[in-house]
Amino acid sequence: MPLRYRGHAGWLPPTGVSYKPLLVPQRVTAIAEHIAPRANRHDIETETHNYFANSILTHNSNSRVGLIKTDTGFEFLAGSHNRVRVHPEEGSESLYWRPLEDKGVLDLLTDLCEGCDGQPSHNVVVFGELFGPGIQDMDYGVKQGHVGYEVFDISVDGRYLNWNDVFRVCFIYGVPTVPLFYEGHFVKADMDRYTDGPTTSQGVAAKFTGREGCVITPVVEQYVHGSRVILKSVSADYYDRKGAKDNGEL
Length: 250
Fold this sequence. Notes:
With 250 residues, the protein is of the alpha+beta class. It contains 4 helices and 12 strands; from the N terminus they run βββββαβββααββββα. It is extended, with a radius of gyration of 26 Å. The relative contact order is 0.12. Residues 38-60 have low confidence and may be disordered.
């Protein structure tokens, strides 16, 4: 034991005595600029929208398109989850920019972005799902060579719109939304009933014809301790399906 710890009851040092001072004066001998190594981020999207990362088969399906204020003004942006995808070069295409090829999506973003003076003033993000052959093992009735798209959320300046407003806006601009199973008081038995069962999509040719599950949100958006109130109930059949190709995204 260190000398200062000897000769007293117990293992703690006497009051006011510390084993190691919190601050230790040091002499500065040199100051030099540190340049961090340059790092590049690569978009590894493939023609089939599937790729292997760390030996895990990954698919691309989550879609986020928006009209956002940047250092150079308001710009259309596209991505998935928390990743912004670069605009495809001329002659090529990107799955993530596909929704912005739809006039209804462009008009929706533009009009929600405009302020009272008719000038862009609001950050608008549309959240949706891209699906079909080559994106997941489930085609949801989408024919080969085509991509399905449905919206499930819209945020304006970081605040999510109520579902009725999302549905109304999308209806006005002809943008498809995810199916609504039920609207009413929350009952766990109803949640279980809508979580499992056959898919509501028509003409499904995939081996798995069940549901992924369902999402539960309040009729009026709510926040608790700064976090949005939203639930997701995932079907056990979906997790247990054979030939699954849905392991998230890098």
